[in-house]
Amino acid sequence: MLIAEHLKKRYKEREVVRDFSLLIHPGECVGLLGPNGAGKTTCFYMIVGLVGVDGGRIRLDRDDITTMPMHARARLGIGYLPQEASIFRSLTVEENLMAVLELRQGLKRDDRRRACQQLMADLQIEHIHKSQGQSLSGGERRRVEIARALAAKPRYMLLDEPFAGVDPISVAEIQNIVAHLKDRGIGVLVTDHNVQETLGIVDRAYILNAGEVMAHGKPKDIVEDKRVREVYLGDRFKLNSGK
C-alpha cells in the first residue's frame, strides 16, 4: 500500500497543508481533488517527491520514503506522469521506450526488445512505433508516456492533470489507460481540475479544503456530501458515470 500519514507543509508563515492522510491499495484508482488553494497540488507533489515534507510521513508498504528523492522512489515502484509533455520529441516511439528499458538492470537485449513490443501492443501504439514524439497527437503522446512509465515496472502511478488540454476522444483514451493500469494491479493517484472526468474513473476520492481532508469516499458519496457541494461542486453538479 502507498500511505501518507498526517502530512504538513508550511511556506514561511502560511500553512498550506495542515493534516493530510491518504491510502492507496494496489489496483485501485484514487482521486485527489479540491478548490484552488486547497493544498491538493502540494500534497500530490509531496507524495511524488517534488516537495519536501514538514511533518508526517509517507510509506510504500514497509519502506519509509518520506525523505527519499524522486529517483529513489522510482526504483521502489513509484511512477510519475507530469502534466507537461515528457516525451523525447526527437526520438521515435520505440526509441522512447527503449531509452527506459535500457536502464533496467538484468534485462538482456532480447528481453528489452520483447518488453518494448509488449508495451506497444498493450497501449495500442504499435502502428506509430517509428513516429517521432513531436509528430504525435495529444492522446498518442499520453499513451506513449504511460508506456514509457510502465517500462520502469511501477507499482503505483501518480498522474498529474492527465485530462488537461486533451480533446474528448483523448479523454476516453486516458480513461481506458487508467483501467489498463488497474488491470495490471497498479495503484493510481490522479489529481486534476476536471472534476467530472476524474470522478468518472476513480474508485475513491479525497476532497481537500484549507489544507485538510474535508471528505473522502466513493464518487457517489462525494457528490452527495452537502459540504463538498457548498465549497467545491455547487448545487448543479451531476455525476455522469454510475459510480
Report the mean per-residue pLDDT as an integer: 91
Question: Which residue ranges are poorly predicted, with pLDDT under 50 across at least 5 consecutive positions?
Answer: none
Secondary-structure element order, N to C:
EEEHEEHEHHHEHEHEEHH
User: What is the beta-strand fraction?
Assistant: 15-25%
CATH class of the domain at 2-86 and 155-233: Alpha Beta
Rg, nearest Å: 18 Å
Mind telling me which CATH architecture of the domain at 2-86 and 155-233 this is?
3-Layer(aba) Sandwich
Class from secondary-structure proportions: alpha/beta
End-to-end Cα distance = 23 Å
Strand order of the largest sheet: 6-7-8-3-9-10
CATH topology assignment of the domain at 2-86 and 155-233: Rossmann fold
In total, the number of strands is 10
Give the CATH superfamily of the domain at 2-86 and 155-233.
P-loop containing nucleotide triphosphate hydrolases
Helix content range: 25-40%
**What would the principal axes of the Cα set say about the shape?**
globular
- Main beta sheet: 6 strands, mixed
Count of individual helical segments: 9
Subcellular location: Cell inner membrane; Cytoplasm
Domain ABC transporter: 2-235
InterPro entries: AAA+_ATPase, ABC_AA/LPS_Transport, ABC_transporter-like_ATP-bd, ABC_transporter-like_CS, BCA_ABC_TP_C, LPS_export_LptB, P-loop_NTPase
Subunit structure: Component of the lipopolysaccharide transport and assembly complex. The LptBFG transporter is composed of two ATP-binding proteins (LptB) and two transmembrane proteins (LptF and LptG).
Description:
The chain has 243 residues and is α/β, with parallel strands linked by helices. The chain has a domain at 2-86 and 155-233: 3-Layer(aba) Sandwich (Rossmann fold), CATH 3.40.50. The protein has helices at 40-48, 70-76, 93-101, 109-122, 138-150, 168-183, 195-199, 219-224, 226-233; strands at residues 2-11, 14-24, 29-33, 55-60, 63-64, 78-81, 156-160, 187-191, 204-209, 212-217. The strands form 2 sheets. Strands 6-7-8-3-9-10 form a 6-stranded mixed β-sheet, sandwiched between helices. The chain has a 4-stranded antiparallel β-sheet with strand order 2-1-4-5, covered by helices on one side. The longest helix has 16 residues, at 168-183. The mean pLDDT is 91. GO terms for molecular function: ATP binding; ATP hydrolysis activity. It is found in: Cell inner membrane; Cytoplasm. Residues 2-235 form the ABC transporter domain.
